[in-house]
Amino acid sequence: MKYSSTLFHDRFRSHSSGKRERCMNIGSSVVPFVLTSLLLTSIFIFYFLNSTNPLSLIHNQGPNIIQKQDQEHAAQTTNVSSSKPYKEEKTCDLFKGHWVPSLEGLSSYYTNSSCSTISDSKNCFMQGRKDRDFLNWKWKPYECDLPRFDPRVFLNMVRGKKMAFIGDSVSRNNFDSLICILSQEEIPKDIYKDSEDRNRKWYFPNYDLSLKMIWSRFLIVGEERMVNVMYLHKAGKLVGCLYCEEQNLTHYNSDYLLRIAFHAAFKHINRCNRCRKTLTLFRTFAPSHFENGAWNNGGNCKRTSPINEGEINYGLFDWKLRNIQMEEFERARNEGKKKGQRFEVVDVFRAMLMRPDGHPGEFWGNQWMKGYSDCTHWCMPGPVDMWSELLLAVLKREEANRINITS
């Protein structure tokens, strides 16, 4: 199986009908916690969970993150047993698994009527989508079960904290999904919205929790011009390019530029002394699924159920990109440990590669781009809600690790 989304170079060059030049700066002028998608929507997201007490995240919660026995009902997943040592549970890789059928409707935490904050472009049922089977699947790690997300457990874990999602439109998709799930427990107060509805802030008064969406397209200092090339600057000096014709410049591949962008961002976080009270969670990017063409020449996504692992093409450029992300993340986490920095990862890539059925497709209601399909963002409700399940499990694991270290 081949999706046009894997052709990163084509997506870069055809992102807009005009031609654009991107200038990237690597060096002392790195913008803190800002990300670039390099025209590949939502390469990653940073979650920043800030606490006044860096050793206090979860109160009165057991250390285990996984239930070994399959418990289908949501209420059962709130009782995470602490009878088994964490070391036994740690062997489970949450990010390797497959999608299995769930009980009818069980995978949905909300509906497009019970959550009023779903944007029109992600409200696939409102836009006319009729099939519903894509809702009836759950992510099953090979070695354990991933508990359903419990809003009350999550809200108690992050009580009194500030959490920021930093990213672009798919990051916003992730943020909105979490807001919808949590709103089934408590309706948050809408504190702030900018004129373009990109930067948002919600507040949950009963839990003293602030959730922020900080919209950002660039990880490093960048600017756009109407030329379809990318120039790389280091400490203000032009050092190379991508898709340029100049013979006196070093010509880089896109994967190299992505690597140094990730490296620069993580390096900045590790140099930030104030960040030692902040847990940085890094989400890998979620691939899009354009079939039968690219986004601007007839590409669509009309599947109605997940694919299995045997249908995955492991030679995709997307895999190379994900591996670059993970290599730079591991490098940053190992370096950060020496300085008291805290990093965790929410790796959604493999799971979402199997969900070509979860996109709005033609049901996104964009009146200015009729005839185009959205195979990048995710329907709400839909598979994107599973990202919150992984987030909750990773938070529990991170706390359990620190309990074991300090005990």
If you had to describe this structure to a student in words, what would you say it looks like?
The protein is of the alpha/beta class. The chain has one domain (4-406). It is 23% helix and 18% strand. The protein has 8 helices and 14 strands. It has a 7-stranded mixed sheet with strand order 6-7-8-5-2-13-14, with helices on both faces. Helix 5 (254-270) runs parallel beside helix 6. The longest helix has 21 residues, at 317-337. The model is unreliable at 4-20, 27-44 and 52-89 (pLDDT under 50). It comes from Lupinus albus. This is Putative PMR5 domain, PC-Esterase. The chain crosses the membrane at residues 29-49. Residues 146-225, 233-393 form the Trichome birefringence-like C-terminal domain. It is a single-pass membrane protein.
